[in-house]
Amino acid sequence: MIAAITAEVRKLSTTRLWWVLGASLAVAVAFMVAVIVFSFTFADELGMSGSSDVEASGFDPRTLATMVYSLPVSFGYVFPAILGAIAITGEYRHRTIDTTLLMEPRRSRLIAAKLIAIVPFGLAYGLVAMVTGVLVGAGGLALAGEETFLDDPSMWGSIAMGVVALTVWAVVGVGLGAALPNQVIVIVILVGWTQLVEPILRLAFGFIEPLQGASAYLPGAAGDAMVGASFYSAMDSGDLLAPWAGFAVLLTYGLIASAVGWVRMTRRDVS
Questions:
Q1: For 44, which DSSP code?
Q2: What distance in Å separates the CA atoms of residue 271 and residue 267, rounded to the nearest whole number?
Q3: CB–CB of 43/151 below 8 Å?
Q4: What pLDDT digit, counting tens, does each position of 227-241 carry?
Q5: What is the pTM of this model?
Q6: pLDDT tens digit string along 103-128?
């Protein structure tokens, strides 16, 4: 098993893809956090509703800071998910799956090795995203005269959970790639779902009282729950689960997708 995991780690680390995606993640997070912080903290200067209006609605300074630090999870989780998906769909796209299965014919072990091997990459993505988000977010809050709450240990706990959430998203990506081995299709689904479909569903569910609880079980919402705040929940898109409940829900998505992929690999020829 160790040899299989080592081989999977080398497959990813010896290509440029992982660090190109990681750099893209950092740039995307920096841009999104800067835009959101600017729009909230400089609302008066922009002629928008001021911070007093936000506070009057229950959006206190601590909630604002937590929401800002959760942005890398809310908007950046597509990057580790794509890397995880490519870790297995790339085998099918470049026809290296045949050689891989010759070296490790036990397909359940192969999927397990890929799930484990993606963890350090997901952890690296989580660290890059959260560090970038905290630096840009705290800088923007401080510039606007808002509290950063970085002296609060519980805030660092939320930030650490953000790293865990993005790591789990890499595992989810592997599971989805196992279930849908067509690389183009899986990337289109991931981008479409994370950037369009789920945000629309979460916003829509927030206005439909019977469905507000259901939105908390969507995968993106489960990841946000691990941090304890979300841009979407701040916009009245429903409540979030408890952090560890969110972790369990998100991990379940990845395990279910992996189980589907295992069934698919064991019952169909890869040729």
A1: T
A2: 12
A3: no
A4: 887 777 665 555 788
A5: 0.88
A6: 877 778 888 899 999 999 999 999 99
